[in-house]
């Protein structure tokens, strides 16, 4: 069933929902793979800088520079790994290993830690666009702080702490703010697209799904039921003598009747079921993993609830109305959603022709079905 998106304040962007994170990863998967590829190329080609800085020491950095080429393999893996948490962990670890590798390169160059300190700016600038804001903030802190930790434990030789802090930490803070701004912008776009999708899939009068949204759902669930051998049933119903209600009580009363019917359908349906307004006063409920017998029980509850309900006309008169309902279960030997809808629709017309305010079930045999279609 279609749900409204909850409102969020600016601080809730620090806690991004899974659907947003998954969508953001897919949107930026190619970009991230390209960034890792470029990092591999830049990190390797900077052996030229090693040679210019220290021709003798550069002879000992070739292997470390070639290690950057492993990121090419990672960029290809990034395109195929679907688990976002695995990618987040692997990306942060790859960045930390790159830092350690870079420290070892500078250790092998004469005055390398002095002239190469600007290179530490690169990794804090490497934002993982497809990941959460928390991952990016944490990784930025790690990338910026790791060289100082390595210097304190004696791994980074001749490390200039004051010069490093002045150079790196302003850049790291700027990058965290930049990424947060990016997250805000992406969140606003994501919510706007979700609102547009919700509007295009929702009936504006009743708030339930519309036919455009409902048909793909039916197609998808029928395919799933065929694959797992689970039943799926459809209820189709509309208001009896709806034209009379409009003619005698006005279209606003007719709209009230449609909304009342939608509310009853929503109340009777489960969270996993789909309720839609197919058009006019006709509604449908797709019941997942429900056989025809249980579907008939639900349909009769809807019929009884509508029969006992009352709506008010513009002149405050009580208006009663009833519904005719058709029920059908999807045949396992027929994956067509049109066939299921035809079965339920024909059963509904039989309920109307049999006196209205009734529930009728579609037959299961082909012979009986053909007769029903003729009767419709």
Q: Which helices and strands appear, and what pairs or packs with what?
A:
Elements (H helix, E strand, L loop, with lengths): L17 H28 L1 H7 L8 H5 L3 H9 L5 H24 L4 H4 L6 H4 L7 H20 L8 H41 L7 E2 H18 L3 E8 L2 H8 L1 H18 L5 E6 L2 E7 L3 H16 L3 E2 L5 E2 L3 E7 L7 H17 L5 E3 L4 H10 L1
Parallel strand pairs: 1-3, 7-8
Antiparallel strand pairs: 2-4, 2-7, 3-4, 5-6
Helix pairs in contact: 1-4, 5-8, 8-9, 11-12, 12-13, 14-15
Name its key features:
alpha/beta; Alpha-Beta Plaits; two-stranded antiparallel ribbon; elongated; disordered C terminus; 376 residues; disordered N terminus
Shape: elongated
Could you report the average pLDDT, rounded to the nearest whole number?
87
Biggest β-sheet description: 6 strands, mixed
Along the chain, the helix and strand elements come as HHHHHHHHHEHEHHEEHEEEHEH
Q: Assign a percent range to the helix content.
A: 55-70%
User: How many helices does DSSP assign?
Assistant: 15
- Protein structure class: alpha/beta
Would you count the extended β strands for me? Answer: 8
Beta fraction: 5-15%
State the end-to-end CA separation. Answer: 30 Å
The largest sheet has its strands arranged as: 1-3-4-2-7-8
Radius of gyration, taken over Cα atoms and rounded to an integer in Å: 32 Å
| Count of spatially separate domains | 2
């Amino acid at each position: 069933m279609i749900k409204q998106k909850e409102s969020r304040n600016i601080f809730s962007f620090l806690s991004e929902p899974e659907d947003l994170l998954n969508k953001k990863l897919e949107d930026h998967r190619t970009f991230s793979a390209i960034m890792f590829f470029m990092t591999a190329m830049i990190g390797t080609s900077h052996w030229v800088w090693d040679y210019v800085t220290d021709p003798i020491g550069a002879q000992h950095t070739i292997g470390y520079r070639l290690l950057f080429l492993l990121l090419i393999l990672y960029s290809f893996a990034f395109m195929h790994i679907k688990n976002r948490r695995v990618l987040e962990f692997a990306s942060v670890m790859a960045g930390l290993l790159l830092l350690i590798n870079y420290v070892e390169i500078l250790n092998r160059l004469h005055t390398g830690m002095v002239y190469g300190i600007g290179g530490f700016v690169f990794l804090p600038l490497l934002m993982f666009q497809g990941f959460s804001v928390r991952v990016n903030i944490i990784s930025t802190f790690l990338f910026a702080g790791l060289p100082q930790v390595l210097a304190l434990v004696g791994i980074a030789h001749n490390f200039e702490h004051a010069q490093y802090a002045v150079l790196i930490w302003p850049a790291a803070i700027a990058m965290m703010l930049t990424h947060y701004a990016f997250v805000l912008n992406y969140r606003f776009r994501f919510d706007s697209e979700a609102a547009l999708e919700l509007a295009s899939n929702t009936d504006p009068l009743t708030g339930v799904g519309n036919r455009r949204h409902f048909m793909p759902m039916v197609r998808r669930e029928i395919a799933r039921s065929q694959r797992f051998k689970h039943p799926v049933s459809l209820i189709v119903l509309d208001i009896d003598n709806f034209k009379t209600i409009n003619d005698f009580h006005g279209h606003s009363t007719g709209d009230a009747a449609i909304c009342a019917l939608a509310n009853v359908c929503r109340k009777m349906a489960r969270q996993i079921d789909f309720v839609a307004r197919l058009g006019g006063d006709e509604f449908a409920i797709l019941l997942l993993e429900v056989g025809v017998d249980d579907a008939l029980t639900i349909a009769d509850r809807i019929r009884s609830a509508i029969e006992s309900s009352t709506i008010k006309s513009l002149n405050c008169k009580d208006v009663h109305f009833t519904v005719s309902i058709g029920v059908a279960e999807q045949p396992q030997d027929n994956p067509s959603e049109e066939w299921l809808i035809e079965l339920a629709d024909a059963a509904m017309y039989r309920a109307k022709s049999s006196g209205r305010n009734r529930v009728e079930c579609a037959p299961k045999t082909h012979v009986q079905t053909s007769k029903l279609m003729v009767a419709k």
